[in-house]
Structure formats: C-alpha cells, structure tokens
Amino acid sequence: MNIRGRSVNCILPPHILNALLDSDDREIRRTAIATLTSTSRLRGERTARSIAAVAAPAGGRRTISDCHQSKVLAQATVERGEDDPAVADGSVNAAFDGLGTTRDFYAQVLQRNSIDGRGMRLNGYVHYGQAFNNAFWDSREMVFGDGDGRVFSDFTGALDVIAHELTHGVTEHTAGLEYHNQSGALNESVSDVFGSVVKQWKLGQTAEQADWLIGEKIFTPGVDADALRSMKAPGTAYDTPLLGGKDPQPDRMSKFVNLPDTDEDDNGGVHINSGIPNKAFYLAATGIGGNSWGAPGAIWYEALKASSPDTDFQAFADTTFAKAGQLFGTGSPEQQAVFAAWQGVEIKISGASPLSVRLSASSNGTGAAAASLPSRVDELAGQIKALTKEVNGLRKART
User: Fold this and answer.
1) Residue 359: enclosing H or E segment and its boundaries?
2) So where does this one cross the membrane (predicted)?
3) What is the pLDDT of residues 103-137, one digit of tens each?
4) 4-273 CATH pick, 3.10.170.10, 2.30.29.220, 3.10.180.10, 3.40.47.40
C-alpha cells in the first residue's frame, strides 16, 4: 500500500501556519498552535485511515455532519443527506453544494463516477474543532474548520478549496502520487488545477476570464492577501509579514526550492514547488483558449491516469504532451500549446523540439503553420515569377 500517496491533505501549507506562530497577536498564535497540533495528529493516523478507506458504491451520495466544535468525527450529528432540503446552517449547505458541484463536474465533464470512479459516498464534516484553521481530505471524508475569524474565515465558502481537496482523492485512486518532493508537488498541483477548473466550470468562465487564484475566499477582509496561491503568477498571491512575507512559490525550474523531505518542511516543499506545474497548466489553458475544462482539463486528467506514484515534473510533462497528441492529433494546436507551456516553465519535452513540433503540424495538416501553407506557397511562387522576369530582363539588357 502506498501510504505516502494517501496522506492527510490539508489546504493550508505548513509555512503559513508556522508564520502565524510569530504573530504579535496572542489569539492568532493560539489558534495556529492548535491547528498545527491537530494536523500533526491527523498525519499520524493516516495509515489507519487509508486501510479503512474502502467503501461500498453509493453513486456519490452526500452526507454532511456537524462536529459541534469537537474533533471526534464519531460524535458528529448528520444534518443533511442527499435528498434533504437546505437547512438553516450555511456551512452545512455550502459544504453540501461544494461536494455536489465537484462530483457533478467529474461525472459530466470527465465521465468519472465520484472520487474513486466507483460511486464513492461523499461525507463532509463542518464546524470541526474550535477556530480550526484548515480543511482536509483524509482518504474517507472532507472536513472543514470554521477559521479563527481573524485571519481565516469559514473554509466551506471556497469552492476551489473543496474541489482541491476532493481531487486529492481522485489522485489517490488513479496515479497515487507519493506525497513528497516532485511527485508530491505534482499531487498538490493537480488538486489546484482541478480546484480552479471546477470553479471556472461553475462560473462559466473562459481561461482568459478566470482569476486563477486558489483560496481567495478563505481570508478575512482584514488580511492583505489575494489568495493562498496564484496559478497565473506563482509567487504573487500575498506579501505580508502575517503570512511570513512574500509568497514563496516559484514559477520555473531555475527557481525550484530544495527543502528536506520532512513534515516540518512540507515533505520537500510540495505546496511551494507546485507553482511550477500550476503555471504550466495556466499557460496551456490560455494557449489553447476557450474553456479550461475542455481540451486542457482532458489532457491533464488523462495524463494523471497514465502516471505512477513516483512521476516527477519531467515525466508528467512528457505524458501531457503525448496525451495531447493522442487526443487531438500529433502537431495539433493543443499539442503545440502544451509543448510551449512546459517550455514556459523551463521544462523541455523529451525527444521534441520547437522545430519538430512545427514540422509535425505541417506534415499532418494541422496547426497554424499548415493552415497558412497554401497562401505561403502562392506567395513564394509569385516571388519566383517576379525574380525570373527580372533576371530575363537583365539578360536582354546585356545582349
């Protein structure tokens, strides 16, 4: 069993929670300590939770329970089931809707039957702990904290956070990407990708219209931060002493952050270096154009299914390029956009070059190069005809 691929996945990275420990505000420090302590305990339980993660098919039916500020899920009370109407508790309804939207996206767009592909039940728990600053997926359920009200608000209010966490479950049941170093950063990136894509799908936004921010709704209005992460511009989501200074995410391989493979260092910086493949997806989606859940989403999803636990950035880049060719044709505009996207983050597709990609497009009658080929031939023919006429004129002048 791949325990490292079945970790407790939290939306807040350790470096942000650790930064809050240095706050001058005693209450902020207290809630940060409580959240970090709970997160460490949950990581220690991940083996037992993973072993028990097998559930009977349920068609993705939802159940939302209220923890009443307890951290013992067994004591939670069921507040809303799949066929129940909305209730008075806004957190219950938001979690119910977020789980449903994510489930419907995977079913309608990617033809996937719930998280595990076999109709896995979707259980959500709200009001977890007191002022708990996180939301997490633990291989069996989705759990939401209320936030401390000072830095973070209710975590059920962000659809991209919900889709991000549930996508960790999809990754567990497909590639099983190990949660450390590059495979772990890729694991986080895939969750950010589909977290953003689900949000765009819900809002009906094109890739150009989207903000490409992750978790912009989890901060309270008083915090000077746009979001947790920016896929469009990694490293720019925030810049405030409260969160430890400037967003540390890199946007290319030359800025890759090497960290120890420990829990304290985010398992080798999985929430930090995910900025590199995040930027690649943004570039691919905007390069292809239209809706991110169309060609770009299909390419990334098929690449995820074709990946393995130790897949790194290079291997995933090569797989997306191959899948783009299989789905849309060798040298197609989609494949060219994927190629350019990885180049944009300083990852070269193995065995391919810009010239070879353009030649493939021309030889297969696809892409802009091939589309303009007849007019370019006519243009060259006209130039040759004019040059021939000029040469004949010079010959006559000499005689």
Assistant:
1) helix 354-363
2) none
3) 999 999 999 999 999 999 999 999 999 999 999 99
4) 3.10.170.10
